[in-house]
Amino acid sequence: MVWLIVVSLIVTGIIFLLLEILVVPGATVVGLFGVALVVAGNVVSFNTYGTETGVVTILLTLLASVVSIGIALRSKTWKKAMHSSALEGRVNIVEADKLFKGDEGISITRLNPMGKALIKDEYYEVSSKDNLIPENTTIEVVKVEGNKIIVKSKEG
């Protein structure tokens, strides 16, 4: 009956390690919990059945880990579980002769202090000189520093 506990601990640990590698990389808690379960299963095996069986258990655990990682990496099942959305944002590309101090536009989102604005029919990520500017507010370009655009409210 103890062998069932050993196998359960090791299999659950390997599953947690697969989750750490393929689904939630960087979480470390899941990976550490998986390692702890695998180690616990091997320790129980050593303590209950002796050194020979413990060494065989470690070797089988290593083999099972390598095989399961290989299968999981080839399997398309994990692609459904993985987070795969891409970021659609972009860096402002401000041409030297396109935006100038005094140009006017409208805030598309609330600027707190950063947000989106429409200036000369182009969308830009802007920073407000004043802390909060509500959306749909007329704005004026105060300064353009490379890709950073600083604006202020024209209203009030």
Question: Your description of this structure?
Answer:
With 156 residues, this protein is an alpha+beta fold. It has 2 domains: 2-81; 104-153, Beta Barrel (OB fold (Dihydrolipoamide Acetyltransferase, E2P)), CATH 2.40.50. It has 4 helices and 5 strands. The protein has helices at residues 2-22, 29-49, 51-74, 77-81; strands at 104-107, 114-119, 122-128, 138-145, 148-153. It has a 5-stranded mixed barrel. A hairpin with a 2-residue loop joins strand 4 and strand 5.
Notable traits:
OB fold (Dihydrolipoamide Acetyltransferase, E2P), alpha+beta, 156 residues, 5-stranded mixed beta barrel
What Rg is obtained from the alpha carbons, in whole angstroms?
Answer: 28 Å
Largest sheet: 5 strands, mixed, barrel
Q: Which H/E pattern describes the elements?
A: HHHHEEEEE
Give the tally of β-strands: 5
Describe the strand arrangement of the main beta sheet, using strand numbers. Answer: 1-2-3-5-4
**How many distinct domains?**
2
Q: What overall form do the CA principal axes indicate?
A: rod-shaped
Gap between N and C termini: 78 Å
* Oligomeric composition of the shown chains: single chain
Number of helices: 4
The helical percent reads 40-55%
Low-confidence stretches: none
| Mean pLDDT over all positions | 85
Q: Given the helix and strand composition, which structural class is it? A: alpha+beta
Q: Beta-strand percentage?
A: 15-25%
Compact summary:
The protein is built from four helices and five strands; from the N terminus they run H-H-H-H-E-E-E-E-E.
